[in-house]
Amino acid sequence: MSPESTGQNEHNLTAYRRGFRTWRGNRPFWAGLFTMLGGMPIAYFPYADLQLGNMTLAMSTTAGAGSLIIGVLLITLGLTMWFHSIVRVFAGVAAILLALISLPVANIGGFLIGFLFALVGGALSVSWAPGEPKADEETPQDASDPLPTAGRHPENMPAESVLHGATVPQQQVGDHDAASGHDGGTHRAG
């Protein structure tokens, strides 16, 4: 390609990364990730065997099925936060409740690792709010006018102001304002 070419010079990885960044920005991504990371140790530890030299330490408990259910539900809630973010508040509250239930049921919440991840993920999901779409830019203000016209009192504005493309003449400072009962800002002692 020549330097003058207008062809696409981006690498596919860069385009994929930009697309992923856009996808991630439209949903509670980190909340879902933390919730899924919290569900994994809660579901895994009751079925794991720890090898210490020649000794095998089995961590399976009578609540192994409960731990598996809590872990799978947390992973499902994390995926729900990603792919159906409209129910993010429900998913966050459910993740917090499941994290709290995992303390007595699932080996102290997956040895506190799963509990903390699920608790943080649920809190992030409840607190996440979608961003505001960018509004269309209004007509630019005159460069010599440092203050916008919307917040200023009409008496302090120039003789003519622009209002949505149409010029509107302002009152002259001595004209009588019938609606307010005073004339142009001067007070008369009477």
Give the overall shape: flat
Using DSSP, what is the number of strands? 6
Low-pLDDT segments: none
Strand percent estimate:
5-15%
Percent helix = 40-55%
Distance from first to last alpha carbon: 85 Å
Q: What is the N-to-C order of secondary-structure elements (H for helix, E for strand)?
A: HHEEHHHHEEEE
Radius of gyration: 31 Å
Oligomer: single chain
Strand sequence of the main sheet, in spatial order? 1-2
Sheet of most strands? 2 strands, antiparallel
The whole-number mean of residue pLDDT values reads 77
- Helix and strand content put the structural class at mainly alpha
How large is the count of helical segments?
6
Protein name: Integral membrane protein
Keywords: Membrane, Transmembrane, Transmembrane helix
Protein architecture, described:
Strand 5 (176-177) and strand 6 (182-183) form a beta hairpin. Helix 2 runs antiparallel to helix 3 (64-83). The radius of gyration is 31 Å and the shape is flat. The strands form three sheets. A two-stranded antiparallel ribbon has the order 1-2. It has a two-stranded antiparallel sheet with strand order 3-4. It has a two-stranded antiparallel sheet with strand order 5-6. It has helices at 12-25, 29-44, 64-83, 88-105, 107-111, 113-127; strands spanning 49-52, 55-58, 160-163, 166-169, 176-177, 182-183. The protein starts with 11 loop residues before the first helix and ends in a 7-residue tail after the last strand. The chain has 190 residues and is mostly helical. The protein contains six helices and six strands, in the order ααββααααββββ. Among the domains are: 21-127, no CATH class; 154-178, no CATH class. InterPro entries: DUF6114 (IPR046096). This is Integral membrane protein. The chain crosses the membrane at residues 28-45, 57-79, 86-105. Residues 174-190 have a biased composition (Basic and acidic residues). Residues 130-190 are annotated as: Disordered.
